[in-house]
Amino acid sequence: MTKNIFLQIYQEYSGRIQTGELAPGTKMPSENELAREYNTSRETVRKALHLLAQNGYIHKIKAKGSFVLDMGRMDFPIGGLVSFKEMSERIGRTSRTIVHENHLIPVPDDIANHLEINKDKYLVWKVIRAREIEGECVILDKDYFRSDIVPVLTEEISRGSIYEYLEGELHLQISYAKKVVSVENADEEDHKLMDLQNYTHVVVVRNYVYLEDTTLFQYTESRHRLDKFQFVDFARRSHGEEKRTDFFNNDQ
Predict the structure, then answer these.
(1) Distance set, CA 226 to CA 72, 74, 241 (Å)
(2) Which is more confident, 62 or 159?
């Protein structure tokens, strides 16, 4: 019975948020109020609120309560290495990856510079994938992997999760990444492969991904439609000393 109430709270409030009945920024009823409303325990209410927060419907602020999030945007973490598949599962939305290119190529000059390699000594895997969320292609990912580190990369792997393959099959120790974020004019390929509507600019996230031994093995250019994504991070002010924090990757 407790399980049914927990799911009932989640389903009713997620539905009200999706339909817009509860607008972004609305404060949710307190745990005590929900417990009285559903004639259940606060522990059951906490489970429902936790699931709502986990799936991106609400944001819990300590000592203030829970607030409805804008479901028109999806949060991408600035910090951490989170794959697109993991992000999709977390937000609980229908998603699909469309592979437009997946082949081995000579290293272009700009990619050789990004990967810091001699273009005459290497080949790279070029993978171009459109990310469709709820029927709209709102992300275009362009990935380049060193073939001496990733010798095989099939279209089937790219359609699923490349990082699952790299870590699970090739046993690579992916450690950290540097991230550069900018807003740029949408190019011809963006308009062709993305559902940009009337937007003329895209958010571009350039990722430089390193293995545990500090080898730079992947360069990614992830292009996002302006209205659909916001990039978030948690920052704490350091007292008594200067502290530098690098930004990390989020897409694979």
Answers:
(1) 11, 11, 36
(2) 159
